[in-house]
Amino acid sequence: MRRYAVLATVLYATLSLAAEPAQQAAREQSRLPPPAPSNPDTQASNLHSVSITFNYDFRKIPACSPSVTAKMCIKEFNIYDISGGKYKLFSIPVPKDARGQMKGITGQGSRRSFEPGMHFIAITAESMTGGESDPASCKTTVQIPAKSR
After folding, report:
1. What does the alpha-carbon distance between residue 100 and residue 23 come to, in Å, rounded to a whole number?
2. pLDDT of 99-137, one tens digit each?
């Protein structure tokens, strides 16, 4: 399986949540706890949704389309929590008519329970054959606040 580097720049990853004052304070703390893996459970007390915006350059590897079906074309982007392993959060389809430098590609995952603490969120580009770029080459961090009591 051929691997290739993702040519994306993460602009930002955010959490969509109903933040209470205690959660806001926890998110703003300067001391971060060690990374914690995400949990796919749906505990209503700590549900969050990850939203991500990034740029991608399709000049080196084109987007897959009805007219471009090469093995080395980008089919979709996968978003992972790589804090304590590799847990797939969601996928983002390639934008329609994607070519050249694309700015502001966005996506949002469904609400799920996350462990409090710092999480590493990574983006990979997936080819038509299922090969993916290295998740460590394009990542960012988000701080999951502690549950309020």
Report:
1. 40
2. 999 999 999 999 988 888 999 999 999 998 899 999 988
